[in-house]
Amino acid sequence: MASVESIKKARRCWRQYNVKLIRCKDNERQALLDLKKEFVDNGGLLLSSWGSQEEDCCKWRGIRFSNSTGHVILLDLHGCNFVGRVPHQLGNLTNLRSLHLGFNYNLTIENLDWLSDLHLLRHLDLSLIDLEKVDLLQSIDRLSFLSRLCLVGCNLRRIISPSLHLTNFSSIPLSIIDLSENRFTNSSIYNWLFNFSSSLVDVDMSDNPLGGSIPDAFGNMMSLESLSLYECALESEIPKSFMNLSCIRSLELDSNNLTRQLPELFQTLFASNNSLEILDLTENKVSGSLSDFTSFSSLRQLMVGSNKLNGSFPKRFGQSSPLEYLDLSENELNGSLPDLTSFPLLRYLYLTNNKIQGRLPESIGELSNLKILDLSFNLLSLEFSSNWTPRFQFDMIKLSSCKFGHHFPKWLRSQSNLSFLDISSAGISDTVPHWFWDLSPILNHLNFSDNQIHGILPDLSLKFVKLGQIDLSSNRFKGPIPLFPRNLTSLNLSKNMFSGSIISLCTIVTEFLNFLNLSDNLLSGEVPDCWIDGNKLVFLDLSNNNLSQKIPASFGFLEQLILLNLRNNSFIGELPSSLKKCSFLEVVDTSENKLSGQLPAWIGTYLTQLSILSFRKNLSK
Q1: Closest-CA residue to 331 (of 299, 289, 379)
Q2: pLDDT confidence of residue 12
């Protein structure tokens, strides 16, 4: 008598043998070959595996078939940049469960009559294919197993044809619907959508001109876990029926005109206090104070930026929270910032543009997971004790207008992973310590502007190899302009006391540089003729220095230039005729120099975008 193990082994062998015998159906192979004829495969990879009629289509890419029947059950061609017409022969794939043609925006669909033949279809994705002239729902009403429908950016205006009865859809078990980035209005979509209230789990209607208020009927979707209605021109109050959404995990209502007191909204959502993970109310008209939200025990992201919140923070937060992302920026919150150690997992904290005042609690240093801190444009003081060493390692610090006291912040020495640092308008009147220039090799953005920082800059060409933007304007730096990394996109050294030649800047005049401001310094000498590679430069300001000799002819290679300011220097000669190639120029100021000759006639012919031209106080005849 055969053992159980030998029987299992025999079955495995039979299944493997049986799979080798099963080939895809002739009519389905032909349907796929018809599709290949219609599509132009710009990528050239996927359809190249689709061979002749003799080959077994079960081995073709983008296709999955049933081991037991040989029928094609999945066709996944999404995001392949195909061009062509979707053929009606796809209707011959009658056992198809999943059809993914989305994100091929150059495909066209003349009609969807064939879709109703795919009666076993569960997942359908036609995103970014223009369906404006197609009667989509006439075909969908026969897909009685459809559970997932993705029609992102399909140029849809309406969803119900006049002859279609809503009752046709009541048996379709749709659980996921993504109709974002279309042109629906509320009257054309809500009646259809609410047919599936009992089955829907995930609804995305974002970026549609829905207008009006959020219907109470959303509160009847008792199984709803995710709802996205951002950028829908919605207004009025967030409905109280949301108190029924006890399973909701993600609620995205940002970029509308919704109103409600935030404490009342928290009360409305109390039934979801164990499920809610993401709440996004950014850019609305939500008002009231910030109440303690730690009762939402699963909340990971809370975004209420750009609203009308006022009042102070809670004196303390009641319990430990898994919050990772908190954005309360662009409001009118005031008072002091409380202890935030109730949020040990916090990674992103945005509080910019409020009226928060007082000292930042040193306990913030206990938030070891914190990566991004933006406290800009508040009334906060960050004068910590000299031995304060935070446990976090920031990626980004934005502390503009916060007050550090006169000394350069020593605690920055512990931040070796910085990519973005802004401590502008911080009241610092110190030198930059030597250790700072070796602090973080991945620094990309540095802003020390509007302080009283002084001293001489070292050679920075090898210090910050990834540095793209530097703003040291409105300080008291002096000495020669040093070498900078070649990949700079923006450099602002204006309103300092730099002196001497600017020849060192030739190394940064590359295809990366788009902004250069050296105005209001003590620079002198000739402007080097090294601008040939500066074809991306948009803004060039050398005004209020003592630069001399002729304006370099290679300025003509700055073909994207919009502003050229050479005011109050000692330039001689005439405007170089090469500037006629700078056809995007809107502002040219060469006043208060020693230029000679008349304004050239080609200015009116070639510089047609020019709105400001100043040539006064020169030696022109």
Answers
A1: 289
A2: 47
